[in-house]
Amino acid sequence: MTVLPTTYWGPAAWFEAYASARVPVIEVCDSFPKQTLRNRCVILSPAGERILLTVPLCKVESKQLTRDIRISYQQHWQHQHLTAIMSAYKKSPYYDYYADFISPLYERQYTYLLDLNDATAQVALSLLRNEMPAKEAAPLARTTEWQHSGEEVLLADETSILDRLFKNGPLAMMK
Fold first, then answer.
1. Cross-strand pairs, 4
2. CA separation for the pair 87, 122 (Å, rounded)
3. Which of 9, 15, 22, 103 is the most exposed place for a label (fewest CB within 10 A)?
4. pLDDT by residue (tens digit) across 84-102?
5. What letter does residue 105 receive in the DSSP assignment?
């Protein structure tokens, strides 16, 4: 059994651990630690600059369980996150193919962080497994003028799986 924390568009390493685990389990009864990837993700701009996206939370009490953490909607964070994702990846090879699967996640207001994280993980896992209904056949590899400044930045440990999905499509989990 492999126990993993919940993540918001977690890094590729999280998805690799999940996929390779015989029995993956998401930890929900831990005390919520602040400033972690549970409510944050790191995406990269086309120039390779790190962009931190944070899901705002309602006040977190000391020792509050992760499963009880509520999302705050006082800010328009969903629009900001979707705009940042579009700006970062709109010229990437697989943006047109995957954007329609990701944008609906930002049209719904999830009460709990755990529900949002579960939804993002399920979409990412389905895309990685190539299980989403195809709009058209996705090419296995494609080149465009879009590039990160370097491959070593793209594969940084905490960089969101979105980077690999939009850049590599069906080959996102291959190194």
1. 26
2. 23
3. 22
4. 999 999 999 999 999 999 9
5. G
Residues in a beta bridge with 51: 43
Amino acid symbol at 135: K
Smallest CA-to-CA distance from 81 within 34, 116, 130 is with 116
Q: CA–CA separation, 122 vs 92, rounded Å?
A: 22
0.90 exceeded by the pTM? no
Residue linked to tokens 């509050």: 64
CA 92, 93, 99, 102: dihedral to nearest 10 degrees?
-80
Q: Is 127 helix (H, G, I), strand (E, B) or coil?
A: helix
Collapsed DSSP state (helix, strand, coil) of residue 40: strand
The residue segments making up the domain with residue 22 are 2-171
Q: Is 118 exposed, middle or buried (0-12, 13-18, 19+ CB in 10 A)?
A: middle
